[in-house]
Model the fold of this input.
Amino acid sequence: QVQLVASGGNLVQPGGSLNLSCAASGITFDFYAVAWFRQGPGKEREGLLCTNLDHDAENWADSVKGRFTISRDTAKNTVNLQMNNLQLEDTAVYFCAADLVGCYNRDDAYIYWGRGTQVTVSA
Done:
């Protein structure tokens, strides 16, 4: 059974940092494209970054460029999202998703999803 577990969400002040982790069981992330999405209150789900089948990063959201980075930890079978200089508008539930085909900025392109981790940015 395949399971993705996103963790690391927390309450943080503006300007702070968090590192989210997406851990997989039942699959090996090395063979998958893995993406991070988020859904803020009252907003549609938004694609942020993806690590593709060549393990290169693809950045989709201008709002997080220069602040968020995606990385793989092959030994731990995780994909991490380092978030720096967090802003109020970064408040959202953050999801990871994986698929064998590649990185696509579309919800329906991913076969596996984690349940999400809450990030709240508040003073």
Summary: The chain has a mean pLDDT of 97. The radius of gyration is 13 Å. The longest strand covers residues 18-25.
